[in-house]
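User: Can you fold this complex?
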Amino acid sequence: MQKNIIEVKKISKTYTGDVKAVKNVSFEVKEGEFFGFLGPNGAGKSTTMNMLVNLVKKTSGKILIDGIDLDENPDEIYKRVGFAMQEVGLDEVATAREMLQLHGRLYHMPKADIDEQIKKLLKLVELEKVADKFTSTYSGGMRRRFDLALSLIHKPKILFLDEPTQGLDPHARQLIWGHIKQLNKEGMTIFLTTHFMDEAENLCERIAIMDKGQIVTMGSPEQLKKKHHAKNLEEVFLKTTGSNLGNEEINKNAADPYTRARG
Ligand code: ADP
Ligand code: MG
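Assistant: Here's the predicted assembly.
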């Protein structure tokens, strides 16, 4: 039996102005699992993910990461998690190598460890050739891959990714998915949000679909298709959220300043 590396018990988030973004959500993720969060814009995916890494303070409920209570020992949790979030910015006047070195030092890693990890990560995300160029010169796809490397410097057990392929062309997207798949194969637990249905269906072992702050259905892609009498995940999505995916992408760009800034 694999253990639950993430345990979420009845968490809620109410933002100021009485915006109930997440309502009483519970779920578990097993160690080594590839877990996906889907849902229309504004469903509460980012809020949920941000609560798990303490970027957003939960209003109520309980979060255990690797058996550790987030309220009791957040520092121990930071050591175990890496995250690449929608709104994280890049330092424009540093090279990838410099940024990776800095982050390694922030995690108090020994220099030899940092150097070894940088070598491994630059290879993984295929940025060896541009490692000593300013990150401001990178394309969108390169930036996302660099974000990914940065989130991995301290060898986290769990990787949180919020729309890691948003705004990328199909080739750049393929590269990112390949890297994430490789990390998962090596044993890392992956928790991601995406609205690419086909990719979620191919990659995720288990998927939770969120709508209006609640999980409306959860299971393996096969289970979901069976349960909702659907031929693919997109149909499951439509049946459970009533959202049209085409519209969702348009709304997303209009309504989400984080995403727009990230482009
Ligand atoms: P998703 O990631 O699924 O698109 P979010 O978690 O970003 O959804 O947002 C869920 C809801 O919470 C939305 O109604 C959004 O407008 C609101 N929200 C998100 N962040 C804030 C914030 N900082 N303050 C107030 N409301 C917020
Ligand atoms: Mg979001």
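The beta strands are 4-15, 19-30, 34-38, 60-65, 68-69, 81-84, 158-162, 189-193, 206-211, 214-219. Residues 45-46, 86, 162 surround magnesium ion (ligand 2) (CB under 6 Å).
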